[in-house]
What we know:
The complex is a heterodimer of chains A (503) and B (386). Chain A has 503 residues and is an alpha/beta fold. Chain A has three domains: 2-234, 3-Layer(aba) Sandwich (Rossmann fold); 241-330 and 416-503, Rossmann fold (3-Layer(aba) Sandwich); 337-415, no CATH class. In chain A, 33% of the residues lie in helices and 26% in strands. In chain A, the strands form six sheets. In chain A, strands 6-9-10-3-11-12 form a six-stranded mixed sheet, with helices on both faces. A six-stranded mixed sheet of chain A has the order 18-21-22-15-23-24, with helices on both faces. In chain A, strands 2-1-4-5 form a four-stranded antiparallel sheet, covered by helices on one side. Chain B has a single domain (2-382), classed as ABC transporter involved in vitamin B12 uptake, BtuC. Chain B contains 16 helices and two strands. Chain B starts with a helix and ends with a helix. Residues 372-386 of chain B have low confidence and may be disordered. At the A-B interface, helix 10, helix 11 and strand 20 of A face helix 9 and helix 10 of B.
Amino acid sequence: MLEVEGITKAFPGVVANDDVSLTLNQGEIHCLLGENGAGKSTLVNMVFGLYRPDQGIIKVRGEEVHFEDSGDAIDRGIGMVHQHFQLIPVFTVAENIILGNEVTKGAFLDLDSARRQIDSLAERYGLAVDPDATVGDLSVGEQQRVELVKALFRDADILILDEPTAVLTPGEVDDFFGVVESLTGQGKSIIFITHKLREVLAVADRITVLRAGRVVGTAAAEGATQQSLANLMVGRDVVFRVDKAEADPGAPVLRTQGLRVADDRGVETVTGFDVEVRAGEIFGIAGVEGNGQRELVEAVCGMRPTAGGRVEMLGQETTDWSPRKINELGVAHVPENRSKHGVVAQYTIADNLVLNRYHQRKFSQRGVRNTAAINAEAQELVEQFDVRTPGVDAFIDTLSGGNQQKVIVARELTGDLKALVVAQPTRGLDVGSIEFIHRKIIELRDRGVAVLLVSAELDEIMSLSDRIGVLYRGRLAGTVNAADATREELGLLMATGSSEGQR
Amino acid sequence: MNGARNANVGIGRAAGQVHRMLTEAWRLQPLYVSLYAILLSFVVGGVLISIIGVNPFTAYWALLRGMVGGGDEIAGSLARSVPFIGSALALAFAFRAGLFNIGAEGQLLAGGITAAYVGALSWMSDLPGIVAIPLILIAGTLGGAIWGGIPGVLRTKTGAHEVISTIMLNSLVLFGVRWMVNSRDPVVLRDTESTVPRTDPISDTAVLPELVDSQPVLHTGLFALVGICFVVAFVLKRTTFGFEVGTVGLNPHASHYAGINVNRVIVASMAASGAFAGLAAASEISGTNGFFQPGTFFLMGFDGIAIALLARTNPVAIIAAALLWGSMLSGAPLMQQEADVSIDVVRIIQAMVLLFVAADAIVRYLFRVRELDQSPFKATSVEGAV
Lengths: 503, 386
């Protein structure tokens, strides 16, 4: 169906794709696997006509093509579902699907015939969508189905799916795999981009692994293992399991009682949350995003006012204390949103490393900053946390996401910590950085720090936590020991708020 | 068509040459856009002058002599520039905290009226100059600081955007002082012995020593304002408070996360901004007129915005930009006298400077300047603070 031969694409300063070749056969699911920045998106963007290759050939059904824009690619039967949906929330499903490809009768939209076409597509591929629903009211999983129908509506035979499972709950992921298989069963061919190894092994027919812009391996899914793929992706042996000793929990350090918090719109998204995290344990909070995680973390760390209930740290009530007062108790916070809260993009690495300690005696005397001490501290942290940078006076936005996160982690994990609140600590990072950050978190736990971990990655929660609580609609739906937890049980709790299930 | 294009390319090439010269010789990287904007404005202004039938070189020669043609001219230019330093600092400092203080016009008036009131208090004449002069300057500074601090408080307590509230506060104080100085019944601050509306003269002990008896008088307030520029540069670059101001300006969310009291920084920065304007006004009252007249500070705050942006909010560059601004205004009358070109032409050139600095894409295209530095005053960067 699709052949990519010797494609090279350079951007100023980087070669994003270097002599990449790939073949997609009819009816197969071809997984494109690689770390962030390996060149997966660049490659598919060229196939979809968004970039033009510097060198190399793209053939569709044996015929060489030169796409000027994505319109050309769509005309050749290529469809793409982006990671961030390209839907208009206030339009209905049918309106979104025909957008740019309107079915008309004279000067008017022919929504009836569009609706009929959508229904028949939906039925044929098992993609249940209601053409008259407003997109903004749909769940993320449903919106994704709309995107798929939209591509099929434009007669796509080749579908490119960019990290389609990143936004789904475990249950939705299973449904999604069902849809993907019914699509290939009826002759569609799929390029599936991901960095989640489990998924690759679950759906792929063939796998191409990219590393630093080059193809480092193409394999049939049969016989591949998570370990072998991870090693290929990273280019060295990856320690897959997070090695950690049994937890040795001590006294309670962080406690909330009936905590209620409102989000920016004033809607209460944390609705009576009780938890107790003890010294030397990692308490993981699993849950589908948008169930109050962000507001919970911000309220505990003093960044957001509470609407009720109380927060205690080390036996003192800290409800609605300022972020600095809480921080000075020995509570560190790795924020969920790296660029909004974690760093000041226009500052150097050194200034970012002291962002919350710049005022301490060590770095400031009589109100004047001690640049030498700041740089010395930064130098030490950069080495200790293996931040890859030309120097501490480089601007932080010259670093990759993984290295920026290391800077944040270095800043937060330094000092005399009693408790650590981490939100999405490894989102968007490569395997190497993930490993590193996980190790640091466990080191802290072993030193007796109480860790509250919030993550949308169930794998991360399961491998790091000692106890796991599932956050559902702003309260804890259940708490389990990590050793006994299963994906199925947690998935059910995440989706329904109850382990009996209601579906 | 083709000829015009060739000429265009030719100009572009010449401009590229100028740019290379500047890069290699002077290392003025961050100020390129400003320098070219000035150059470009004079070129366009020259075209304008020749359209009205005057040789632009004759006009500019007269302007230049009016600016720096002799001792008196230089002193006059300096004197004219002094208050601009303060009003430009008012914008620049707030800008570093991510705030757009366009209320310097009002903060000058608030500082000026406070200084004039304190300076005319009867017991001032009993004090020695070494006490009375600092007192009148501090009074003006405080007046400005309060008037600047109010929009800061409104912003943190109610979310009112400082652009709106400073505009409103400008009107409030403008008409407020006008009434105070005009009104005869009741007498508020009017000097009843004077035929023109103005306040009572300040005590002789509160008069800043004069440097040159030029027109206007060049007084020692120059040192105070130039000194403040260096102090502000140091504060922003080297102090803990400056770090907080810069952090809030660049990323208020991260500042909040890092434990900085964002509201306190906002109020303090606005008050400091107002203080600079207030100081400028007080030094004018004390050093030149000796009384307050509402018209004295007309447009001075708004010119401060242009000067601060021209200096790319760099406190030391503000000194140079204010000198340029003030001396152009000071030299314009000679141009009118000798070349018969209206003073307004200088105003037009100044407006174009600001326009070219704001719409820097024009300058970058003409002079082939790459986007090296972030433009500090594009609409988006003002939004920074929420």
